[in-house]
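Note to self: user wants both folds in one dump. Writing first protein now.
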Amino acid sequence: MLYLTSDNFPVFVPFGVIGFYRYLWFLIRVAAAYTYRPIPLPENPTYIASEDVTIIVPTIDAGEEFKEAANSWLVGKPKEILIITEEKMLGPLQDLANQVDPERIRVLTVPFANKRLQMSHGIKNCTTDIIVFADDDAIWPPTLLPYVLACFEDQKVGGVGTSQRVQPCGDRMTVWEVLAAFRLTIRNIEIACSTHIDGGIPCLSGRTAAYRTVILKDPEFLHGFTHDYWLGKYQLNSGDDKFLTRWMVSHGWSTYVQCCKEAELLSTMKPNWRFLKQVLRWTRNTWRSDMRSLFMERYIWTAHPYVAYTMVDKLFNPFTLLVGPCLVSYLIYKSTIPIDSGGYHLPWWNIILSYMVWLTATRTAKLLPHLWQRPQDIIYVPAFIAFGYYFAVMKLYALCTLHETGWGTRAGIGDASAATAAMDNNEKAAAAGNNNPVYQQRVDPYNNSQNPFSPFRDQAPPSPYQDNPSQTPIYAARAGGNRRGEEEGMEMQVGYAR
């Protein structure tokens, strides 16, 4: 390729600059991740799992893998595990809970399968200082809870995440699971880097993340969380972890990620082509959330400027990645033209071979942390390269289809608006003393003027308390509080407006 530059050197200058820029930042990320250090365990911990931790697991189809996951959670001795499911799954999940630990696992239900409503229901039934959300297949090491709780010793920390690895569904990983494992390796480096540089993170992954309960019990949070709309009319069900992360940033709370073996969970991924549908859903959530963070809420620019940079970089990443194939195609075309007519002297096969060698070398370098642990996965590097270009095209497709908010990989996930309307009607009926609520669709669920002070005012419909302001709960939390409420300085108020 260097010999090729003698034909028309200026053609390569902009692409060389792009390549230098991208790999310079890659080296910076690696260096920052290498110097990152997790928070160690305190000698006298403020928080004890058996007193202060409730694990909330929203699910609709937990199977036998739930037993392994639940047993791994119980090793950390949480006070309680709340399984939140839809009503028709109560029996099967109660049987699973009884087989594991009926004393510490409760199964609660909501009328509709809706993850955010399930999480909200779990929050309302939590009585501990710390809530840990977990997927029903997340397998924890025995030390995960103590290492997560160690971060909350800093009273400004509102949310804590963990690093992750892929747990194969079968005896060996499929190519789809290896691709997922590659992505998690790169993600672990990125989150360690951003946490070390400016303390921020693009997303506290919903596979396992811990939060202060006082933050999540705030009615403003609960209302915004369950009434989250894209462009004012497309209600969101997935993307809950993105919402939670943005809420931490917009309300002045710090976050931290424990990237270490002691807090590294195992999670299953789709072992077949359905993994692509998962990635498509995650990509849409990333587009929507990052654009909100950067251009609508804008807290991220001052709170975590490095994370803001990474978000901007991701906006342009699919375009810069697709520049390579476009350039190679152009060079191949030029190589078919006679030199006397302005063509290039190198044959087309030389250009393709040089490009493939470059791709293989650079992509393998990015995957070295994973290949050090699993060298046998080196045979999947070509698949990872192909997936990278497919992913770039998928990101552009996702950008054009942000109005599609369905789950994509799970049956039984119904209309989010209908589920939310049913919840609102239930709350109104309960407030009015009506024991026979009627489930019906709200005609106009969106009104910006009802919540003028919320950072999510452009997405949230009217508060369920607007018809009866005297019953509006006051429950505000701000960074700087303490675990035991007012007696230790927590800036918290609980009560009802009069």
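First done. Writing the second protein, which came from a different request thread.
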Amino acid sequence: MYLRSIVTRLNASRGNFIRSRSMASGLQREIPALTKDRYPIKRGKFAELSDSDLSKFESILGKGRVLTQAEDIQSYNIDYLGSVRGYSRVVLKPKSTEEVAELLKFCNERRLAVCPQGGNTGLVGGSVPVFDEVVISLQLMDKIEQVDEYSGILVCQSGCVLETLEEKAKEKGLVMPLDLGAKGSCHIGGNVSTNAGGLRLLRYGNLHGSVLGVEAVTAQGHVLDLMSNFKKDNTGYHLKHLFIGSEGTLGIITRLSIFCPTASRAVNVAFLGLESYEAVKDTFLAAKRGLGEILSSCEMMDDLSLQCSMQHFNLTCPIDKYPFYMLIETSGSNMTHDEEKLTTFLENTMEKGLVLDGTVTNETTKMRSIWRLRESIPDSLLKDGYCHKYDISLPLDNFYDIVLATRKRVGSLATKVTGYGHVGDSNLHLNVTCPKFSPELYKLLEPFVYEYTSNVRGSVSAEHGIGFLKTKYLKYSKRPEALAVMAQMKQMMDPNGILNPYKVLPQI
């Protein structure tokens, strides 16, 4: 009885999809302070770049792929959020695994610190130099070698843009198991190196399960061929897992194979309005029970997040204003079957007073319009000037409490304190905006956010990694014994410590 009326409510059309996060925001933000000046950290005992080093790089890559002009390398030194900035003097752009190996072998012998970089869309300062590290950009390593529609295996170099891979997979009736708001500019190698989560994790799991094999280059320039084209390959230690999520500190991923499931023939999206977070939690439980195997995404956003997205990108919300919203996607193989399940779910949750209003559609253009409301939130929050972003995992019972606690703690020092994220896998994105970076506000937020997260036995990093910004807070999610083993692995794999130094592991 509700479904017929709410289906007709959605009439907003979708604009051009966001292809680049840096371009999408359209913001002219001031250049941030140098990382070494904003955060207390000392440069490691690494060599300094010389003219003879540049000559060696040019002998490996040719002059055209060794960038040294300030105007050419500035964007490689600054992260997407504008929170950290290094001062590298050179950016290297290899095209092959062999070139990466040569570069790393030389840098290791010279003890030149290296910063691997993909699409530079990371949010924890892991993809840009802290000091003057040599940047090795994987942008030109963008070959797609194979998309096998029978096995569902895609093989490619690590510099491939995620959206390009998604398009190629779609041509074969497959779907990438990973979907991110930054897919128009992020690289699959960076995604794997950070074990990125994204919008489809509820359905397809994380990259430790989807990535079948990798090719990686160690700090000494040794190539590890850990590629596999089989889901079943139980041959000793699974070394690929060392590189998935290690954020370029143990080696540089240059190629990979990933399993792409068959694309769903029946996809529906519902956008719902709710009165409270308790209703969000109960609706998620109802979705798991009522939608079962076809539930592919379950997103939550508070009203402040949605309003920011709508205002900055001139978007239209298809339903009235509510304190909370949910975006639920189903993916299956039989449209009639899926629509029946979705109709029953919506009727039940509305009758119980959990869902107050909603709209549902299976039209591609309208589904994209709804998804854009959610995907535009991260960029829209940058409009305020500066944004402290916290990517944390929390028990669903405590999921939104931290937003309220943070709002109370920071008071008028913040412009906005908002919360949105993947309620389907307990991943909250807490955002605190302000006109510009404020040491006073920063001290109120950290370590408060991470202590709060630890106290409810959450994780200080759900999907964005540790990078540079979270190294001193890793202790809130990892025991000393685990940190010691991680340090031993780093020492074994990278004895000179040249690979992405100052990242992931706490600085001693």
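Dump finished. Worth passing along: The longest strand covers residues 266-274.
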